[in-house]
Amino acid sequence: MGNLYGDNGGVVQEHQQNSDFVNYCNKMQGNLVADMSNCGSGDLRARKNGFKANETEAKPVNGCLKNCSTNSTTCQQAKGKVCPNSSQALLTPAKKLKELAEEHTTKTSFEEVPLHTACLTYLGFYLLMILGYINQLLFVPKVAKEENRDGYVTLYDAFESFYSRYVYRRVRDCWNRPICSVPGDEVTLKDRVTKDYGWSFQFTGTETRCLNLGSYNYLGFADAKGPCAEKSEKTAREMGLAMTSSRVELGTTQLHLDLEQLTARYLGVEDAIVFGMGFATNALNLPSLISPGCLVLSDEKNHASIILGLRLSGATTKVFKHNNMRDLERVLRHNVVHGNPKAGGKPWKKILILVEGVFSMEGSIVRLPEIIALKKKYKAYLYLDEAHSIGAMGPNGGGAVDYFGVDPNDVDILMGTFTKSFGSAGGYIAGSKRLIDYLRTNSHAHCYASSMSPPIAQQIYTSMSMIMGLDGTDTGRQKINQLARNTRYFRRRLAQMGVITYGHEDSPVVPMLVYLFSKIGAVVRTLTTRHIAVVGVGFPATPIMEGRIRYCLSAAHTKEQLDYALDVIDEISDTLGLKYSRKPREPNPIEY
Amino acid sequence: MLKFLKNILLSLYMQYELVTCIYMFEPWEKKLINSFVILTLGLVLFSSFVYLPSYFETFLQFVSPLPQKEGSASYTPILQTQKMSMS
Ligand SMILES: Cc1ncc(COP(=O)(O)O)c(C=O)c1O
């Protein structure tokens, strides 16, 4: 079902995008779970954006928090007040935390949706729904019938199939677009046409070369030529394409061991373990780390793989508002004080805070130093999913940990994927030797899943050593700097134009809000005619209100390419009416 | 000049299509919605031209503090004001 919805412009990571839909559903149900186990401890359900949520008044849990006024920075003050009389001293002084919180707010761009746009968005959505139902009554297409299935349960959920047939179908040409080249700085789309409004597509046989603003190719290692590709090819010739066995049986080679060593060195921790699939790294390792009776505090914008893992583990999950430290502290404090209500108020076995480094739909960055301070204060564990941040953030490409300059040993479990910055596939978990040894004996992904394919491992190995500068050149460093410059430049130019973007100024994922469902389609289509490939994201992957276009920057882009893209975006946001922002605009031209 | 006007009209129509999500519909659905919108608009305009002036007059007479002129209108406004005050 996922790929009907995949909001992925088909540019590359299909599975990622498809899972975003699942992610959304999971989130909804995850929230339900949270509610049931929650016994009315405040409102965890608010699925509003975290920045917004910062301003809403949370229910104070106890006296100490009552003096908190309405925003997160003052929350830090309150913490400062609490500090002296609590026995646990914070390692980072409260004042510094306050500064950090302020810095986070200034660096994060966010704007409320204009009221009339909000109304129009809902109006448009209802229109789509109503006409969809009329359409469904009048014309039942052949594909929509299940034959010879009397007495069986229907295969499709009614609302889901309705939505994909009568709402999503109308703009289906903007997603799952087939490509026929390496998704580097440019990508070749296979052209297709539809004669029946999205029910079916025919290839025209022509191709369009597009500037690729849709791939997670942050450091530009996805390339059909160059040292990475050559070495992988060599490995494929020597070792074959697959190990056809799991790691604990016959699937371990020297390459895998080297890769694990290098990953541990790269992250600055004791040991690491690698898996053949990033999604499975989360989904299958979380159940071996936590069990029923543990409490997990999960960010509301977490990825589908994490949510699946949490469900499989059977641990109690509570969701906190996106990147909202005040809400996190409230939930943490409540649960430390009251314990597990199902076990009669006994303490939880473990409390695990689960966050991502860079959130792929919001473009925001985790507030790591503050979370680490909280985690130390309340003696919880921290699991950090660096899928999008590893390689793309920090002066040495070490992810969010590197970006904030915190000690990697402060994060108990460092997880990440090789699918994005390294231009490969797979995932890792890194941490202390004890943790990794435990996973080596207990993880399902290690014991039962097939091991990573050698050319894939080689690609990671080569690109990682390039980032670390082990190949004797400074290509890796150049790429990191290029990405950082591209990101700043692109984000600032967009802000100058007057479109609304979300997220942190250093995050290479740039969501641009277009709100209306039809505008997502219009933007993707118009940009394709101008030879730019982007990804549109709409309901159900985001809330109805917040349809968006997501640009992913890459070190492979040059300034000229970005300038071209920005000029086109400027032009079309005039014609399509995307300049919603009411903030003052930077009058001077922006330097690269 | 004509072309310029046409362009402006076209872009306005595009904006209208986008904000109402009509952009995404099939042609027959577009026609349906557009005729619905035109019909509603037409009815509103028609009624406001035909009925509104007289209603407005009655209303003014009803609210105005000045004593009413006798025999000011042929369609017995007194009757209507009575109705209104009753409701
Ligand atoms: C936060 C996060 N975790 C895990 C994954 C899964 O990684 P993979 O695509 O390698 O399966 C993704 C995205 O794809 C992600 O965004």
UniProtKB/TrEMBL annotation, chain A:
Which EC number applies? 2.3.1.50
Which reaction equation describes what this protein catalyses? L-serine + hexadecanoyl-CoA + H(+) = 3-oxosphinganine + CO2 + CoA
* Protein name (Swiss-Prot/TrEMBL): serine C-palmitoyltransferase
Highest taxon listed in the record's lineage: Eukaryota
Q: Which UniProt keywords apply?
A: Acyltransferase, Pyridoxal phosphate, Transferase
Q: What CDD domains would the database entry show?
A: KBL_like (cd06454)
Q: Which family does it belong to?
A: Belongs to the class-II pyridoxal-phosphate-dependent aminotransferase family.
Record-annotated Aminotransferase class I/classII large domain positions:
209-569
Question: Which EC class is the enzyme in?
Answer: transferase
What cofactors does this protein use? pyridoxal 5'-phosphate
UniProtKB/TrEMBL annotation, chain B:
The UniProt entry, under Pfam families, shows: SPT_ssu-like (PF11779)
Query: Keyword annotations for this protein?
Result: Endoplasmic reticulum, Lipid metabolism, Membrane, Sphingolipid metabolism, Transmembrane, Transmembrane helix
Gene Ontology biological-process entries: sphingolipid metabolic process
How is this protein annotated for GO cellular component?
A: endoplasmic reticulum membrane
Topology in the lipid bilayer is annotated as:
Multi-pass membrane protein
- InterPro entries in the record: Ser_palmitoyltrfase_ssu-like (IPR024512)
Q: Which pathway?
A: Lipid metabolism
Membrane-crossing residue ranges in chain numbering = 32-52
- List locations, semicolon-separated: Endoplasmic reticulum membrane
Superkingdom is: Eukaryota
Main localisation:
endoplasmic reticulum
Q: Give the multimer and partner information.
A: Component of the serine palmitoyltransferase (SPT) complex, which is composed of SPTLC1, SPTLC2 or SPTLC3 and SPTSSA or SPTSSB. The heterodimer consisting of SPTLC1 and SPTLC2/SPTLC3 forms the catalytic core of the enzyme, while SPTSSA or SPTSSB subunits determine substrate specificity. SPT also interacts with ORMDL proteins, especially ORMDL3, which negatively regulate SPT activity in the presence of ceramides.
Q: Which PANTHER family match?
A: SERINE PALMITOYLTRANSFERASE SMALL SUBUNIT B
The family line of this record is: Belongs to the SPTSS family. SPTSSB subfamily.
Q: What does this protein do?
A: Component of the serine palmitoyltransferase multisubunit enzyme (SPT) that catalyzes the initial and rate-limiting step in sphingolipid biosynthesis by condensing L-serine and activated acyl-CoA (most commonly palmitoyl-CoA) to form long-chain bases. The SPT complex is composed of SPTLC1, SPTLC2 or SPTLC3 and SPTSSA or SPTSSB. Within this complex, the heterodimer consisting of SPTLC1 and SPTLC2/SPTLC3 forms the catalytic core. Within the SPT complex, SPTSSB stimulates the catalytic activity and plays a role in substrate specificity.
**Descriptive protein name:** Serine palmitoyltransferase small subunit B
Q: Which organism is it from?
A: Bactrocera dorsalis (Oriental fruit fly)
